[in-house]
Amino acid sequence: MSDNKPLVLSAPHPRSIDLIFDDDHERRLFDRYEVLETEPDRIGDLDDATLGRVRYILGQPAIPEDLLDRLSALRCVFNVESNLLDNMPYDRLFARGIHVVTTGAVFAQPVAELGLAMALNLARGIVSADRAFREGREIWGGESNAAARTLSESDIGIIGFGDLGRALRRVLSGFRARIRVYDPWLPPSVLRDHDVAPASLDEVLELSETIFVVAAVTSENAELLDAAALARIPDGAGLVLLSRAGIVDFDALVSEVASGRIGAASDVFPEEPLPLSHPVRQVEGFIRSAHRAGALDSAFKKMGEMVLEDMALLDRDLPPQRCKRAERETVGRMRSRPVSIN
User: Fold this and answer.
1) pTM for the full model?
2) What span, in angstroms and rounded, lies between the C-alpha atoms of 233 and 256?
3) DSSP label at residue 156
4) Which pLDDT does position 1 carry in this prediction?
5) Do 8 and 34 touch, CB atoms closer than 8 A?
6) Distances (CA, A) of 97 to 60, 63, 94, 100, 253
7) 333 CB burial (10 A radius; 0-12, 13-18, 19+)
8) Dihedral pair phi/psi, residue 228, rounded to 5°
9) Which residues are within 8 A (CB) of 181 and not within 5 positions of it... i.e. 6 or more apart?
10) Averaged over 244-258, what is the pLDDT?
11) Which helix (H) or strand (E) holds 19?
């Protein structure tokens, strides 16, 4: 191996270099760096001399204490899976000045756009009306809108206000809605600066006609929306689940929708792929999407651009700016499961 270029260890499973870099940025990667591709579970098999030269890791492989000791030149772990996993000693990484960053922000806009489409579907019954039309049982005119409502000037709630919540706020801006946000990790002034109203969870649930659930799953909020919480949602409201299914008691959500009391849409599920026997497949009033909201090639390719720009900064002893940095106070609380299918 050449010692002339910084060494990048590439183990981005289930993603690949070809998926996250377009041709131009992939050429730049290989021009500027020596890239060693390996499987995440084979990193420990590399010799000490090689591991001692690794400056950057692409992916989020498990890094036990003894492996971290051998990665003496490591500067940054670029997590292109985007869910921070509890598989490395973050306290030691931070103590050594090693960054852990994610490229998950690339998914915010496309996920927000699909979330808007889901909310409009729930409000106007677009999917069910199309199905009825194709089956010759359509209802014409105003009679078909007995349960319809508009998003414009309505009450909307958002649970979680990270990159995705903020992207949702942007795509909702034209609807002149009253938007309340629950996010216990943010001070009220930050929410007000984004022109949303800080609110308690109860206020978001009880006062919203449409609720977007976009919070990451943490050690503190697993099944935050349990049966009792879901029961506080007003009759006829719609819930759109876009982050991870673990934040909701999914069986209770399916029951609420099956009863006809509320509608729901989800891009994420407790198991993925979902078993064919799962009851949610048969429930009317539930819009289903196979974890595809952010899985656009254009989004994947932005990852490579972000990674290269931040590597260039780190090469100059500057902090990364494009990717989102893991925070020492919260990284250990993350409980989202990694994806298995891109």
Assistant:
1) 0.94
2) 10
3) E
4) 47
5) yes
6) 17, 16, 5, 10, 43
7) middle
8) -65, -40
9) 157, 158, 159, 161, 165, 191, 196, 197, 198, 199, 204
10) 96
11) helix 17-20
Q: Is the pLDDT of residue 161 over 50?
A: yes
Q: 């194709």: which residue's tokens?
A: 134
CA distance 61 to 12: 8
- For residues 98 and 69, give the distance between their C-alpha atoms in angstroms, rounded to a whole number: 12
In this structure, of 79-93, 147-161, 170-184, the range with the lowest mean pLDDT score is 79-93
Q: How many residues does the chain have?
A: 342
Q: What is the pLDDT of residues 196-236, one digit of tens each?
A: 999 999 999 999 999 999 999 888 888 999 999 999 999 99
Amino acid, single-letter form, for residue 68: L
Question: CA–CA separation, 29 vs 307, rounded Å?
Answer: 9
Peptide bond into 273 cis (omega under 30): yes
